[in-house]
């Protein structure tokens, strides 16, 4: 029983030492790139202050333009149709029976 445990311990040590040697070689063989920033699974590089302020100003101007014209020129959404004059409608269009039919 002692011999079988010694064999198991030997196997564990062999595997542990073998993995350490293999993993150390992989770390030494990694490629180092001295290029631009990378953004895989992280935020990209932060833009300059002037870029951020310019984006906020452009967005504010866009919303001002949209809301100003929505308030002052709402006909673009509701339509530019003239309201019909009800005095020009006939009784038949309004569904009112004629006076002659009432007398009979």
TrEMBL record:
<keyword id="KW-0830">Ubiquinone</keyword>
<dbReference type="InterPro" id="IPR026627">
    <property type="entry name" value="NDUFB2_animal"/>
</dbReference>
<keyword id="KW-0813">Transport</keyword>
<dbReference type="Pfam" id="PF14813">
    <property type="entry name" value="NADH_B2"/>
</dbReference>
<keyword id="KW-0999">Mitochondrion inner membrane</keyword>
<keyword id="KW-0809">Transit peptide</keyword>
<keyword id="KW-0249">Electron transport</keyword>
<comment type="function">
    <text>Accessory subunit of the mitochondrial membrane respiratory chain NADH dehydrogenase (Complex I), that is believed not to be involved in catalysis. Complex I functions in the transfer of electrons from NADH to the respiratory chain. The immediate electron acceptor for the enzyme is believed to be ubiquinone.</text>
</comment>
<protein>
    <submittedName>
        <fullName>Mitochondrial NADH-ubiquinone oxidoreductase AGGG subunit</fullName>
    </submittedName>
</protein>
<keyword id="KW-0496">Mitochondrion</keyword>
<dbReference type="GO" id="GO:0045271">
    <property type="term" value="C:respiratory chain complex I"/>
</dbReference>
<dbReference type="GO" id="GO:0032981">
    <property type="term" value="P:mitochondrial respiratory chain complex I assembly"/>
</dbReference>
<keyword id="KW-0679">Respiratory chain</keyword>
<dbReference type="GO" id="GO:0005743">
    <property type="term" value="C:mitochondrial inner membrane"/>
</dbReference>
<comment type="similarity">
    <text>Belongs to the complex I NDUFB2 subunit family.</text>
</comment>
<comment type="subunit">
    <text>Complex I is composed of 45 different subunits.</text>
</comment>
<keyword id="KW-0472">Membrane</keyword>
């Amino acid at each position: 029983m002692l011999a079988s445990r010694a064999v198991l311990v030997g196997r564990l040590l062999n595997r542990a030492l073998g993995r350490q040697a293999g993993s150390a070689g992989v770390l030494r063989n990694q490629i180092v790139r001295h290029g631009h920033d990378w953004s895989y699974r992280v935020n990209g590089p932060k833009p300059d202050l002037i870029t951020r302020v310019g984006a906020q100003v452009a967005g504010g101007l866009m919303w001002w333009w949209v809301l100003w014209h929505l308030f002052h020129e709402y006909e673009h959404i509701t339509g530019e149709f003239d309201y019909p004059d009800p005095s020009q409608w006939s009784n038949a269009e309004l569904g009112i029976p004629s006076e002659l039919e009432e007398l009979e």
